[in-house]
Amino acid sequence: MRLHLPALLIYYLRRYLNKGRLMNEIETQARICKVFSVPTRIEMIALLRNKTLCVNALSQKLGITPAAVSQHLRVLRDADVVIAEKRGYFVHYRVNAKTLAAWGQTISPLFKAPSCSLTVEE
What we know:
Blueprint: H1 5-17, H2 25-35, H3 39-50, E1 53-54, H4 55-62, H5 66-78, E2 82-87, E3 90-95, H6 97-107
Antiparallel strand pairs: 1-3, 2-3
Helix pairs in contact: 1-6, 4-5
């Protein structure tokens, strides 16, 4: 059985997010929403889309403590949304585009309009 790369990515993402147990589509969508439920994390992702940044730079741009940044980055790293790269004494973070693309495919059905049309009788 040969899976396309996005389907394979979604399969492993479902397993990764649930610590080995394969999640169904609803559970995966709920987990994605949970990761993105904090506005600071959304802001971090927006900043990291443009360039790589270290904890101190993120802290300065977001106006929060480095400890708070680190905790948010831990959640994003555990979900494979950001990738850490060691550069000298500092760790720089960047967005994992493959994960975001796979998540986009997983979550988009949730926002599609229903296919049936409802009519209101007067």
